Amino acid sequence: MTSGRELGARRGASVLQYFRCAGTAVANAFAFTSSSVYPLMSVAEQAQADLERLQRARSQIQSQLSKIIVGQQEVIEQLLISIFARGHCLLEGVPGLAKTLMISSLAKTMNLSFSRIQFTPDLMPADITGTEIIEENRSTGGRERRFLEGPLFANVILADEINRTPPKTQAALLEAMQEQQITVGRVRHALQNPFFVLATQNPIEQEGTYPLPEAQQDRFMFKVWVSYPSFEDEFEVARRTTGRSPLEIEPVLSGAEILSLQDFIRGIEVSENVVRYALAIVRQTRVGQKGIPEFVQEQLAWGAGPRAVQFLILGAKAKAALSGRAQADTSDIQFCAKPVLRHRIVVNFAAESDGVTSDKVIDELLKQTPTAQDELLSDDRFKKLFAS
Question: CB-side exposure of 162: number of CA atoms within 13 Å?
Fold first, then answer.
């Protein structure tokens, strides 16, 4: 006779064998499906496929924007770099240069929720974050608190003329940019993902404005100058805008696709030399440090912090990927230097009175910083800079 213990052991073995067979069958079925529908790819092949996917997305976005926007290719490229690098962007230029139109058109190319906030001197934090209301519950007859979401609860936020609103409203936007959340009372509300703030400001209107402090500007990855168009571009603008209605923009990217491309860009390779080059540029802006150039000591009042290095590298990764390259190099750092640094370094009064701008200081820094690794490591000035 078989004991109860032996019978239980046999039944346990049978059940275990059943699940092993079932697991093998499921694994084989999954492998068949993967190989027939989604063939396995090497890391290099997957990277190349992602690069091609990003190239198609860039081409489609530019094609859609060309229906509305004439020229401004460098501005558009910097906007795309900022978005794919998960950064926020501040556009500055005189009125009438299509800053608002450019941002709203870019938002339309993405299948994302969009909010435009026109910043004014009387705008309050609750106007952009949302507010709590008391309403009657018809089923119980009681009164309940309910939170009404503000315009910040969208994927793409156009903050138009951000420097026309008081600091407390600017601070409410700052929390949303940095933490991707807002706080109303004691309750924190998470914002949607992806989340971008694309802001504009006017440099020539000073009355009724509240300039963004440097600490708040530092939260923007890029500060982009929007300049006057060329003669050919302005001719085309005049011809298009005085004719019939423009073409409609169609969305070409979804939120899931944008998140996927952002993750891919984070994985772009960056060599130690490129990181060291970015550090060399940023650390040379810090007044009072060893190894900085003499003109920096004379012309700057304040230099850039570690966030500038992070955004330089992230921007270089996005620039390389958008250019079809799987690895960033020093030329990508150079391309991103001005939009990353121009709002993070402060020119002193004496230099400003002589016509020195942050862009001129950045140009000189790029001239005096070697790109080759052996030159950076052998130069006595950079040895002091890296040792400080």
Answer: 27
Tens-place pLDDT, residues 313-340:
999 999 999 998 888 999 999 999 999 9
Structural domain span for residue 169 = 43-265
> CB of 197 within 8 A of CB of 170?
no
Contacts with 240 (C-beta within 8 Å, 6 or more apart), sequence order: 70, 246
Read off the pTM: 0.82
**Which residue shows structure tokens 């540029």?**
281
pLDDT tens digits, one per residue of 352-370 = 899 999 999 999 999 999 9
Amino acid of residue 197: V
Check if the beta carbon of residue 256 is closer than 8 Å to that of residue 264: no
* Three-class SS state of 119: coil
Q: Which residues contact 368 (CB under 8 A, 6 or more apart)?
A: 284, 293
Helix pair angle (43-65, 73-84), 10° resolution? 140
* Residue at token pair 């949303």: 176
Number of domains in the chain: 3
Answer for the pair 290, 336: CB distance below 8 angstroms, yes or no: no
Q: 102: which 2 tokens?
A: 């450019």
Burial of 12 (0-12, 13-18, 19+ CB in 10 A): exposed
Q: How many Å apart are CA 367 and CA 133, to the nearest integer?
A: 58
DSSP state for residue 1 in the 8-state scheme: -
Residues 307 and 362 in one domain: yes
* Pair (207, 289) in one structural domain: no
Contacts of 146 (CB under 8 A, 6+ apart): 132, 133, 134, 135
Strands (DSSP E) contained in 169-211 are 181-184, 187-190, 196-201
Q: What angle do CA 241, 247, 252 make, to 5 degrees?
A: 130
Look up residue 229 and give its DSSP letter.
P
